[in-house]
Design brief:
Distance between the termini: 74 Å
Low-confidence stretches: 1-29
Strand content: 15-25%
Shape: globular
Strand order of the largest sheet: 5-6-7-8-4-1-10
Order of helices and strands: HHHEEEEHEEEEEHE
Largest sheet: 7 strands, antiparallel
Length: 226
């Protein structure tokens, strides 16, 4: 009788433990990886393409603000553009890992500018204004030297990284990268944005000057990329 009772108690305890573990997973916790917007795949699965499009536009504006604020720490004049920055870039790999991410279910964003300070030759001391700015923001900071160039990296802590590089050739670059974002269909999102984009960007611009992101109701003016 005693052995039977003990066996029943063990069974009840095991069932309760199992239920508790399942409840913990269902409650979310940190079981499902979150992206640069602090969303899980399940969160994004509930979004329409229209909603993903609008969310990308919000990320685009945030990226441009990060870039502008950093640019103004060293130069308020014109900066050169190296290309457009209003389309999602293929995910999977990124500046920070996202378990389960691949080239179809994730994307990242990047923007960058460059300028040539008069008489500059890539001195490490030229990083100081940006270093002071990153420090004031409370960001995690890394510095490293790469074949004579000096790089400063700031981690915002909320899904973005900024890299300022003083190059020996006198050309100084500022780049902003996002960590990965989940998407339901990377190709569909890219086509939705590209179809409405003017596909133009300036050769040079002052900080904070950039093409407007399109609206969902804008006409489709470009055929999907092959």
């Amino acid at each position: 009788m005693m052995n039977t009772m003990q066996s029943m108690l063990r069974t009840i305890a095991t069932a309760a433990l199992t239920l508790g573990l399942l409840s913990g997973c269902a409650a979310g916790g940190d079981q499902m990886p979150t992206d640069a917007a602090d969303l899980t795949q399940d969160d994004v699965a509930e979004m329409s393409l229209h909603q993903e499009f609008d969310a990308f536009g919000d990320h685009y504006e945030h990226m441009q603000r990060l870039l502008k604020d950093a640019q103004l720490q060293v130069h308020d004049g014109e900066w050169e553009w190296g290309g457009g920055d209003d389309l999602p870039l293929i995910g999977g790999d990124g500046v920070a890992p996202l378990p389960g991410a691949d080239t179809k279910n994730s994307y990242y964003m990047r923007s960058g500018r460059l300028w040539s300070p008069p008489g500059a030759a890539g001195e490490q001391r030229d990083l100081k204004p940006m270093l002071d700015y990153f420090t004031d923001q409370g960001w995690t900071i890394e510095q490293r030297d790469i074949t004579g160039d000096h790089e400063l990296r700031g981690y915002t802590g909320d899904g973005w990284q900024l890299i300022y590089t003083a190059q020996e050739n006198g050309r100084y670059t500022l780049e902003v990268y996002s960590e990965l974002f989940w998407t339901n269909d990377g190709n569909a999102l890219s086509d939705a944005i590209y179809g409405r984009s003017t596909v133009t960007f300036p050769d040079r611009s002052r900080p904070g000057v950039y093409p407007d992101f399109p609206e969902w109701d804008d006409p489709i003016v470009n055929k999907p990329k092959i």
